Amino acid sequence: MNTTITPPAGTVVHQASGRGHADHGWLNAWHSFSFAGWYDADRIHFGNLRVLNDDTIAPGMGFGTHPHDNMEIITLVTEGALEHKDSMGNHGVIKAGDVQVMSAGTGVQHSEFNPDPAHRSKLFQIWIFPRQRGTTPRYGQYTPDPRERDNQFQQIVSPDKDDAGMWVGQDAWLHLGRFDAGRTAEYRLKRPGNGVYAMVVDGSATIQGHPLDTRDAIGITDVDVLEIKAGNNGAELLLIEVPMQLN
After folding, report:
1. Which of 23, 55, 142, 198 is the most interior residue, by most CB within 10 Å?
2. What would the pLDDT profile of 195-218 be if each residue is shown by its tens digit?
């Protein structure tokens, strides 16, 4: 069943049920775009957004050391924790609410494990194609104040290292917002020609007139402003703004 629909030009709606799914026991993963063993010709990428994975990792389990290159990798831990080690010498724990950015550039190896022997960890991992290939790898993480996303959008990633949040090597911005029932909001795009991929992390919302439930998403191009209204139980939203033209 094809759950990717294109209402008007410039809009694509991805229902949660249409995502790829892989349950490996230690890892329960949902893929918004083609990944690993799941392929959907209609879901390869959204502009420079290549991966949006919704992962649950069992206690004490994780990803062994593996390589990446030429990709901006953003990890948002939403429950539990994730222990990170990499070939740049970084070693630490990313806790729920933290934002991690790894610019893989010329190449880096890393591992990711749930360090808790009794509780699961949950996270979103996002891959964005970089503006420039072959850059020096780098790593960073921080803990944004969750109060700054109450009934507004909080910027957590941008292309400017002096701006709010972590920075990535692409003209991309990530925002989180948590809205009370019935609240309305606008998101104004930062860069002409960019598009926005918006996921309802929790609750429900109407975005540009399209009703969306938990884990549904909508990709929108050719607009300057997104119009958003939270549903009856409120809404938690993740917005990923990216250039639509691949480098």
Report:
1. 198
2. 999 999 999 999 999 999 999 999
CATH for 17: 2.60.120.10
CA dihedral of 157, 5, 55, 151, whole degrees rounded to 10 = 50
- 129 close to 99: Cβ distance less than 8 angstroms: no
- Which two tokens mark 74? 């953003």
Inter-CA distances, 219 with 2, 25, 26, 214, Å? 16, 31, 30, 15
Alpha carbons within 13 angstroms on the beta-carbon side of residue 102 total: 26
- Burial (CB count within 10 angstroms: exposed 0-12, middle 13-18, buried 19+), residue 233: exposed
pLDDT single digits (tens) 143-192: 999 999 999 999 999 999 999 999 999 999 999 999 999 999 999 999 99
**Backbone dihedral region for residue 208 (phi beyond 0: left; psi -120 to 50: alpha; all else: beta):** left
Contact of 176 with 185, CB cutoff 8 Å? no
- Tell me: pLDDT of 3 over 80: no
Q: How many C-alpha atoms does 133 have within 13 Å on its Cβ side?
A: 5
User: Average pLDDT for residues 71-75, to the nearest whole number?
Assistant: 98
> In which domain, by residue range, is 18 found?
4-243
Q: What is the pLDDT of residue 182?
A: 98
Q: Give the chain's domain count.
A: 1
Q: Which residue has the tokens 């996303």?
A: 149
